[in-house]
Amino acid sequence: xxxxxxxxxxxxxxxxxxxxxxxxxxxxxxxxxxxxxxxxxxxxxxxxxxxxxxxxxxxxxxxxxxxxxxxxxxxxxxxxxxxxxxxxxxxxxxxxxxxxxxxxxxxxxxxxxxxxxxxxxxxxxxxxxxxxxxxxxxxxxxxxxxxxxxxxxxxxxxxxxxxxxxxxxxxxxxxxxxxxxxxxxxxxxxxxxxxxxxxxxxxxxxxxxxxxxxxxxxxxxxxxxxxxxxxxxxxxxxxxxxxxxxxxxxxxxxxxxxxxxxxxxxxxxxxxxxxxxxxxxxxxxxxxxxxxxxxxxxxxxxxxxxxxxxxxxxxxxxxxxxxxxxxxxxxxxxxxxxxxxxxxxxxxxxxxxxxxxxxxxxxxxxxxxxxxxxxxxxxxxxxxxxxxxxxxxxxxxxxxxxxxxxxxxxxxxxxxxxxxxxxxxxxxxxxxxxxxxxxxxxxxxxxxxxxxxxxxxxxxxxxxxxxxxxxxxxxxxxxxxxxxxxxxxxxx
Length: 492
What we know:
alpha+beta; 8-stranded mixed β-sheet; single chain
């Protein structure tokens, strides 16, 4: 307290106010966003930012090796800020499975006030999205007629064994399809680059099987037609069709063969159409998965680079990441989209030194400005007299702080820096150069030197005779002076 008592009253109060603010931790209720502190405390990231889907939550990581996951906010107000060091930032999704999630991202650029005077603006790359559309597939189950034909085949008739064998082959090939178990297995295994390549290989195998079945069905239809030329069977455009009258009139075919022929005749046209449609859908799915397999994978092929953003360089890049869950649904079998989940991050250019423009107040220390008048001496002459000495009170100032981010990978409650500026004193405008401490609360204190000018006597001196005050005014000239100052800056 002795220190405060030794200070002039006008600026001892300044230090009291600073101590009170620091001790109370006061922050105004309607405080505007402090973009300087936002940049100083932004999480440092070099060239990659990781995302991870955990159930219903979208997380981010700055290092995939450490368990430092944080939940992403879905609004810009709560978005975390990252200070990007490299020229380009890769957006990476961990343990990516394109059959489980669809990803998209976009960015919005706006000028960064902390870099407006220091960096040229660079347009960021437009967003791209990797998407997997719904895939519809169809499967068939054995029909009651097929089961009846199998049961009837127990009483085999030797006369039409060759024909019945061809019919059985037709039925077997018609049943080649994609089941729910097949699709669920692909969804489960299509994680990471290696998993996707494995599923692509399985789809290739399934396509080979389907295409072989289609060819075998075409060949089987012709074989059945050749074998039944001399029978009462009627061959129609839709496939092998058995006239119902044959069931009563034909005595050279056993009931099992006739039942099997009726069953296949009802399925062959639709079955071929469904298999051809399934081939087209599987080829489309295969091509989509191959596109992901040909993308950029890192960390032993588990993490997928789904986008890139250029370093914002003098701008603030608000990036929105959208993840749409994909789930398997049946009847028909398809991959359906769920409710999108959105996360927002803010990207800013990393710099070891952060500039900040601000307005504040300074108090010059030990700066005394003389004010002159006249008086009569003992001899009755009018002479120059020192009327008083004025000390400037608080003065407004426009300041620029160059703040040092002295901890790259972690936050700090205070940041040192250099302050330059202009004081707004009516009679003593000056240039400021000093040191500043910027707190994470919207408060900064500074101390330094102020170069200023004021008017003082040139040729006259106190006690010199003059005609009047006009002679004093005419003799005044500007005098350069350097004094100490203390400053206070508070951002509301």
